[in-house]
Amino acid sequence: MKNFITTQKWSRSELQAIIDFAMELKSNPFQPILKNKSIAMLFFNPSLRTKTSFEVGISELSGTAVILQPGKDAWPIEFQENIVMDGDSEEHVKEVAQVLSSYCDCIAIRAFPKFHDWDFDRTDSVINSFAKYASVPVVNMETIEHPCQELAHILTLQEHYGDLQGKNYLLTWTYHPKPLNTAVANSSLLIASKFGMNVKLLCPSEDYHLDDRYLKAAQDNCDYEGTSFEVSYDIESAYSNAEIVYAKSWGSLQNYGKPDDQMASNNKYKHFIVDESKMSLTNNAVFSHCLPLRRNVKATDAVMDADYCIAVKEAANRKHVQKSMLSKIL
Ligand code: CP
């Protein structure tokens, strides 16, 4: 039984096999691969793309998707071990994971961090608790990483460029009026480095460094691939020669759990917006983003409407890669 929680547990060739089969499914979408299979999808947070692409994709493969929102249309769940459950939670993940495993062939989880304490949030306790107690594969639909987005990102880049080995990849921080999850940024570093690109992380200062776990993983992947990994605070040099620009906003881990301090810091860096003048410094780069994206805050209308913007293609590819990944693990 293999979970899909982090791409770090999958080899580049295994991930490429998922992407290759996603290409086949893209041209031949209706196949009964998941006939008589059911997938429980638990959403602790909102979604447009993930919910729709999984549900439609599972249906296209003749499977059944069951969508649950714990605390809304399903009972609130407790994750702490050895606790007297006299608070809001009505049942424990130990029972939930076993019961869902008895009905379904896979459990998929979206559970963002709580944004109080990064030392705790970095343990990714919700999805790891499900993985501990479930007897069916567990899939990450975004926690502190977003591996399904990673697959769609790579498929979309391969459709544009073919081989990605040695491409110059830039992940840039952007402003957002709320401190956001680091998941897509963490994932961007993991997958760009795993697929053999020269990776640059552009952020306003050391306060915006991602967790050392992801910086180290990116460095290790690049060392393995013989490529480079660099952190930059200089917009002009970071954009120069980039062939791929990926943008994401996140709250600084230095001020984690202190949203007012995070925003006071973020407000100094609105100029990190992706605009045409920055894109003109690149080597004809494509631009992408996981979406949702606030126009003229993270990227300008001109960038979002440019031919080089592949964000919508990447969102569309979510369905194909997820269908392929489910076909492999089930
Ligand atoms: N990119 C992504 O996961 O989108 P949703 O939050 O809408 O699912």
Description:
- The chain is 40% helix and 14% strand.
- It is α/β, with parallel strands linked by helices and 330 residues long.
- The protein has 2 domains: 7-145 and 319-329, Aspartate/ornithine carbamoyltransferase (Rossmann fold, 3-Layer(aba) Sandwich); 149-315, 3-Layer(aba) Sandwich (Rossmann fold), CATH 3.40.50.
- Strand 7, helix 7 and strand 8 (198-202) form a beta-alpha-beta unit.
- The protein binds phosphoric acid mono(formamide)ester.
- Phosphoric acid mono(formamide)ester (CP) is lined by residues 47-50, 142, 149, 290-292.
Q: What distinguishing features does this structure have?
A:
11 strands, 13 helices, alpha/beta, five-stranded parallel beta sheet, 330 residues, binds phosphoric acid mono(formamide)ester, 2 domains, Rossmann fold, globular
Which SSEs are present, and which pair or pack?
Layout: H1 12-27, E1 38-43, H2 49-60, E2 64-68, E3 77-78, E4 91-92, H3 93-103, E5 106-110, H4 118-121, H5 125-133, E6 138-140, H6 147-161, E7 168-173, H7 183-194, E8 198-202, H8 212-225, E9 229-232, H9 235-239, E10 244-248, H10 259-266, H11 276-279, E11 286-288, H12 301-304, H13 311-329
Parallel strand pairs: 1-2, 1-5, 3-4, 5-6, 7-8, 7-10, 8-9, 10-11
This protein binds phosphoric acid mono(formamide)ester.
Residues 47-50, 142, 149, 290-292 line the site of phosphoric acid mono(formamide)ester.
